[in-house]
# Entry
Amino acid sequence: MVEVFILKKRKDFVRVASKGLKVVTSGLILQAALSLSKQENCCQIGYTATKKLGKAHIRNRTKRRLRAAVREVFPQTALSGVDYVLIGRYNTATCDFQKLKQNMQNALEQINIQLQAKKASK
# Structure
């Protein structure tokens, strides 16, 4: 089981976006990159909801739903030593929560396979 911490610094978000991998689903976008921190058995997660989604209450709801889904999906599935960034999409605030969790699970499995292949090649 992996402990989940929060990404807060802009430079970490930029690093994950520029050097990491990306998977797009209908409910969210997941980006991931190997972490620079040396902590064991943990991963870091950042949340983004842009103004394109709508007003503040919609962006807040989007991030709340992403955080709730992460609490259920990530501890069992996430890789340690990886930074993840979740980006809300236009329908994240309104789609069915079970579908959102399933999208997150599928995206996480896909990106973990790519990250493990990347680790093995180094």
Summary: The longest strand covers residues 28-34.
